[in-house]
Amino acid sequence: MSVAASAPSPPPAPIASTAAPPDSAPAPPSPARPGGAAADPAAVHAAAKTERQAAVDRWRRWDDRLSAGRGVVFLAAVAVAIGWATGSWTGWWLLGPAVAFAALCLIHEGVASKQAFAARAVTHHDHARLRIGGGLVPDADAGADLLPPDRPHAADLDLFGEAGLFRQLSCARTAGGRATLAGWLLAPAEPDEVRTRQRAAEALAGEVRLRERLALLPGDPPAPPGDPVAIVPPRPLPAGVRLAALVLGAAAVFGLGWWLIAAGSVGILLAAAGGQGALQYVFRDRVTAAGDYSERTGGGLTLLAGVLRLLERCEPPAPAVAVLRDSLNDQETGETPSEAVARLASIARRLETSRNNQFVAVASAVFALPLFHAHAIARWAETHGGRLSDWAAAAGRFEALLSLARWRFERPAFVVPRYSSESGAARFVATGLGHPLLPQADCIRNDVALAVGAPSDGSTHEDSSPGAPALLLVSGSNMSGKSTLLRAVGVNATLAGAGAAVCATSLSLAPCRVRSVMRVTDSLADGKSLFFESVRRLAGVLDDAAAAGPPVLFLLDEILQGTNSADRRIGAEAVVRTLLDRGAFGLVTTHDLALTELADDLGTRAANVHFRDHLADGRMTFDHRLRPGVVPRSNALELMRLVGIVPREG
User: Fold this and answer.
1) What CATH homologous superfamily does 418-642 map to?
2) How far is it, in rounded angstroms, from Cα 555 to Cα 307?
């Protein structure tokens, strides 16, 4: 694979082989940020960290004082105990130190909680600065479980995984938020929806404190995908059953007192306990159903309640956020969604405790607590269950928008692309295009222009690129940047279709489905050869190009590798012609210079471009600049000479 990252070099000259992209509208203003519009994102997080670190130090000092105070009170209690033992004081004197010690313990617990919260905030801002600098945040959500097996382009482009786009982009906490953002990356949205997301990201970009609160919300980690909210809610218990449980509980308490205090018969206690046990056995399925209902909420009830609370309190700076917040209004119950979900979380915790905590096992059995908690969950489901999935979806969309906003804020040099289908032609027209996951100081940028078709009325849209080909055949030596160019095109097209900012000086494109054949491997275990896998993947791209939907933007790296040059030439031409005939457009890389002749056969629909290497003093370097035409030479033999495989001439 080639890599388009090297030492920084001067800006590239325009490429004559591809039509120059049209002038785009000026880049939107940088997001409003604390400290001024021109504030640097890293500086903003550094200032926030300093503030939080001051809070940590302040609470630590209080922690030390309270620890010392508890020690003093403890010594005072010891002195009083000695005085009591010697008859100098009465035992009532111990009450004062005991109350003081208990009060100090409660205050100390609150201070420790605030100190821990501030410390977590410091870590949060450290991670933000690491991410802005191009580093990988430890233990960040890579979204590997969201990688769909039927979308191999997602693996080719590193949309998910340890060094993938999702890890840098997402700040979602709930399962719904993660799934929403993943869905946006896997399928392009309609232009109106993309513009809605773009406006929301711009408006929320400066909300650093809001994203901090989201990151520090308490709650369970996201549940595994595919564990949706239960469709069938649990059923409430009949009033007679609840009354019987109350009566049996009271009888058990009376029987225990009768036996222990009055030395009466133990029969009442045994009869009540037996009846209570039988009652809970008969209705055990409803308790289990209630427990399952409370667990199948995607991202954890406490966490979901926290996200909903943030959404409810968020002043809507963008219509998309206002619509989400308004969708949560529920005047029928007088309870906000966050309050309702928090109440369900509380009931669910009590149910879990009553079923599994050995310290309350006796009380749970005597008073049939699992039955009453299960009934409370069932009543909650009757009142709010119909809207729970809508609330989870609203919270998930809110988190996905905050993810786009964080991406916009932390990458002020990126631009918001023009994304529309008004021109009537599929297109991808970029200037200064780079890979968004590479360190920007080392990222070499190039211009790329692709277009298919023209408006039916013969007019020229401002975003069109007259003369741009539908296919770029990219030749070049090993490690010159071909594969990274393909990934830069694919990842930026994915970001644009999701509503995010892109790594380019300007980008204009229409909705398109990115498809690729890049990381093709053979498998001895599955009995699949490299060529077979290449053909199978290409067939999938051809099928997608024929299916209904936006045009396919194809990215084919070393097309039909694993076969001889003659067969590759025939097969590649058939694949490319079929894709172009089906309205697709894209890039094809190759080491086989015979394939570059396709551009001549395809006329104006194709153009050759290339990357070049430089050899000096036995050292090979690359400038990663895209140039017009076919690469003049290959570096394969020279690479083998450099490592001693092939002897040097002369």
Assistant:
1) P-loop containing nucleotide triphosphate hydrolases (3.40.50.300)
2) 38
